[in-house]
Specification:
- The chain is an alpha/beta fold and about 290 residues long.
- It has three domains: about 140 residues, Rossmann fold; about 80 residues, Helicase, Ruva Protein, domain 3, CATH 1.10.8.60; about 60 residues, Arc Repressor Mutant, subunit A.
- The chain has 14 helices and nine strands.
- The strands form three sheets. A five-stranded parallel sheet has the order 2-3-6-1-7.
- Helix 7 packs across helix 9.
- The protein starts with a strand and ends with a helix.
Length: about 290
Amino acid sequence: MVLITGESGTGKDLVARAIHVGSPRSAAMFLPYNCTTTQRDLADSQLFGHRRGSFTGAVADQQGLIRTAAGGTLFLDEIGDLPLDVQPKLLRFLEQQEIMPIGDTRPQRVDVRVLAATNADLEQRVAEGKFREDLYYRLSVIRIHVPPLRERREEIPHLSTYFLREACERLAKPDIHLSSEALDVFSQYWWPGNVRQLKNEIQRAVALSAPGGTIEPPHLSPEIASPRLPGASTPSREQVERDMIQAALDRAAGNISETARALGLTRRGLYLKLRRLGFDTRAEVDTR
């Protein structure tokens, strides 16, 4: 088992994909599953499957994600948000490689590798009774911590080149380049949304550029391209993050979903930053 930890948007999914590609299972399926987006009463069925008629609405057999990924890799993102009542079934599968679909009477063996990731403090969740201690130790046989992008700025040019090529292919806009000035701006920015924000920023810039063009600082989002005034005092890291998030909130008229997308964060990731930075989420944001 491998547990990948790090802030929201740091690229934990990219690490998981790299592990899969470098494994003997690389030719098989890599199946990501976000535990945060799952309704509590559906997580069991989505992961382990069910038999037709086993509950209201079960009109057909469902094999579940674990069997779907058989022979390959199942990536459980935000494992800390997996419902507590589903955790024993996951632990049983990790230990015995067997699942019991809802409504079935016999366990079924499944060969699949499980990778997990979280931006939560699982030790704290264990202490609070929100995460099983035995599952925590089973998941964290090998731990990989992905630092925030601000702590590995030397990777920004390489990541920018990769995301630029990806965006050009996706949007069918060939031969778009990043200027050295734009790369300098990227290298100096704080990136509160980490790798996800960098990827979204480059995709936005490509979308606004003509084929064969060059992305310059004026093509970037205002909060990224705006230079600091000469002689101004250097703000703290928290103040930089707070100012950037407040600017994004103002542009989105307080809409939390739009703000999270603009910053390259999940809604939950943005809420965590808002609480850490002292925002009054009840008063300052629209929870839509």
